Amino acid sequence: MYRSFNQFISQNDSLDDSRLQRNARVTCEFEDYFDINEILMLSERTPVVVSKDICRLGFLDPTSDQADLRKGTQLELPLWLAKNLYNMYSVDIQLPKAFSHFYVNIMRADSSCVDLKRLQPNYYKVGRQLMALLPIEAHRISELLVTTFKGRFRKITDGAQNAQIEETDQVTATFDNDERAMFLEGQKVIFDLKRWHDKTRRNKIHTADLVVNHRKRKWEAHYNDSNISGKKMNHSDGTSGNL
Description:
Layout: H1 2-10, H2 17-28, H3 36-42, E1 45-50, E2 74-78, H4 79-87, E3 91-93, H5 101-110, H6 116-119, H7 123-133, H8 135-162, H9 168-171, H10 177-202, H11 209-242
Antiparallel strand pairs: 1-2, 1-3
Helix pairs in contact: 2-4, 5-8, 7-8, 8-10
Keywords: DNA replication, Nucleus
Domain DNA replication complex GINS protein PSF3 N-terminal: 34-86
GO biological process, one term: mitotic DNA replication initiation
């Protein structure tokens, strides 16, 4: 597969500088080559339509036994491959099912009920990739991502604050990978805060006995001085009255 793809690239050296610049800009955007999560995201299937005949890539279409990909063929490719072919003007990228009008309406109604883990495990990252690849759809995708996140944010935070560790898999069963990471981070913060409270409660600072005794003696001395002063005043008042 990779050898045939490299052969195809070498046969298309006639791409002008503007295409190469566009290819480099879009391909590198949002990507970290050594990040396993990024690799998994770029492996998600993306629907495309072949816009011209492509030599020696017919094996990408499981329904065809031809050596070449024919124009108009509809198939799903890994996102990394779809991006490269798109930048070579060989395919047109279509919106995945998670970004279709049907799911747009569902997200606007109540996004918290959607199982993103099954629908699109890297929903937000794929959406950002599509925004870079499809400028015409970028604004609509951006609004959809914000709407979806707003509708699901409360569910994420409530779960992070109240769910026990053994309930993590159950609570995050419908979360996409970014939401799950956010949930785990929030849960860690809550546990760290509880641990800090427990630690301060156990290690509460108490007043030293020496200080307590010193304050007690000081108070007793002050109390005795006050009593003595009061008695003297009463005695002097009685003496002046007799005179």
